Amino acid sequence: MAEAHQAVAFQFTITPEGIDLQLSYQALNQIYLSGVRSWKKRFSRLRNRVIKGVYPASPSSWLFVVTAILVTIYTHSDPSMGLIAKIQHLHVSLGTQGQTVVSAMVFSTLLWLSLILALRFCLKLLLSYHRWMFEQHGRISNTTKVWATLVKLLSTRKPLLYSYQTSLPHLPVPPIRDTLSRYLESVRPLLTDPEFKRTTELTSQFESNLGNRLQRYLKLKALWATNYVSDWWEEYIYLRGRSPIMVNSNYYGMDFLYVTPTPVQAARAGNTITALLLYRRKVYREELKPGCVPGTVIPLCAAQCERIFNTTRIPGTETDVLQHWDDSEFVAVYHKGRYFRLWVYWAGRRLSPREIEYQIQRILDDPSPPQPGEDKLGALTAGDRIPWSQVRKQYFNYGVNKKSLDAIERAAFFVSLDDEEQGMMGEYPARNLDRYAKSLLHGKCYDRWFDKSFSIVIYKNGKNGLNAEHSWADAPTVAHLWEYTLATDAFQLGYTEEGHCKGEVDCSLPLPQRLIWDIPPEAQVASSLAVAQALADDVDCHVFPFREFGKGRIKKLRISPDAFIQISLQLAYYRDRGGFCLTYEASMTRLFREGRTETVRSCTNESCAFVKALESGEEQCRHLFRLASVKHQNLYRMAMTGAGIDRHLFCLYVVSKYLGVESSFLKEPWRLSTSQTPVQQMELFDLKNHPDFISLGGGFGPVADDGYGVSYIIVGEDMINFHVSSKYSCSETVSKASGYFHQCLDKVLMPY
To answer: How far, CA to CA in Å, does 164 sit from each of 299, 312, 429, 673?
Structure first.
């Protein structure tokens, strides 16, 4: 209990001689150093606010403007056209010379601020131009060339992470007629002629009556809100869901495919935690370069980065709430049914990787058993949300339970030290990859804290991975974090020859703090676990590394790799099920402020025509395939530029619910839900010298009970990794049918 005594800054006892005050100088020193670190962070944030507040100008440009104005005054010129003289009349306590200087500085400051506002307005106008995305390579218009030059001129200064935020345009509300027209086009290949005729009539009635009324409310919201979609999307798609977020919402990310940097579990945890803390420091200091559209300087919204760390989803009866804290100096760790608080800062400094490894090893060596009810406590976050909300209010709002729960929820992130081995290993590597995916998606249903923004999993053999909660951000934000973590772990921090972290250890570090619980039997942990276990047992996952070719060979055909894969998935589904289905592909809308995602309905008339022609052996397959590819690219670009279908219909649907009227839209199931995990930082991975350091990407559960969830990552030039999920309870979907993807890729390529 030594560490418990050290945590007390002072103690006192009452004696006959009076009060005996005992100070713990070590604890006071820790408080002092923690305060210094906190004030350094506040100063850094204040400095960053100034720098990004004047972007694309710089704070030093103020001095240039003041100097220029003063020079013109002393040369008997008046660039202010009399304004400086008027400002002088406001100063009565200064001499003539002082009044002139102060007035000139006031005018210079106002002029400088006006120029900044003008530059930011110009940058916002430039970033609102999206026609460049629809122009063919090598056929760029003069307008786009001038636009690109102006954007580069206004982006010459190195931006901070959030420098572009106020310059990003707002997401526009598309005309309702355009959205409904594209909606009819998207459902045409899925309906018979009578069904399509009826849908057309319903759409026409909706537009002329209810639709225009709902549109007016939506336009009013767009004038008031920063983004007319994102808050409702977060609230109604994620936070109001009452079913388990495990499998249904959370997703996972995997380690390297062929390489495990160290087999020492504690060492891998030490470097992984350190890399994550280094990334957090970059976020705090805004040192991360803002994301851009690949191959351009066009910035993407960085708002999702604000809640990566120190964030937890708090359950509620009707809706959950995302709780974010400004800082946290510890992480929560789970091992064999016990929970620990691990301080990652000590004496005002971040622990070294070797010290974190030392602390993790202490947890692994701790022989103490779980307290009653503690070992399966995490199942509460894996089951239905209403029971978890009720249990939390009843048993975790006071006493030791509240303190321990606060330690988990306020932690920077959650770490699970798994007692299993995972990865592509053994006699059946493909089967073990599937087991690895399932482990990251749901684990044992109680050894992850699914409410945390993300949980890191470190396996017994040194393999790692993560499980991420979905409401606070989308996969590209987490993927960027994970790329940095893997690269920093393997190429920058590194390990000793024995597989341990580098650095020295201060053996006086206090033991990791064991969290104390008092969990009554009526806390419904068992019932939540039963719900979660049934859901986990029903999920089938298959990881499919495709090594025959990659984007290099596809690009030689002058075809978009994403379009190529999406059309191939249509072919695979057609061969598997004998028809087509409404297909969801996630696209980002981060060209706009606070943008999240939009749907690309990748089952099109053109892709269906190609699949039917290929299956019937017709000769015009190549031409049809190119038409389908061009169509898909155009749909993807429209989704990125705010002209998608589904988010607009979703918001119209929400408005209709607020008004108490019924809408027949957005009720169709997505039987094929797909998403690409983009590689955003290829410069971190030297695949030429280290070809084995290939990321597996990540995946998610099926969106529909009778559908597939397909995630894919294009790695380098010669590999594509697929993650396919489905449910055993549906006889029509079996993820092992993902072998069709291999066949369809070969068949699609054969005509070329």
So the answer is: 7, 27, 45, 32
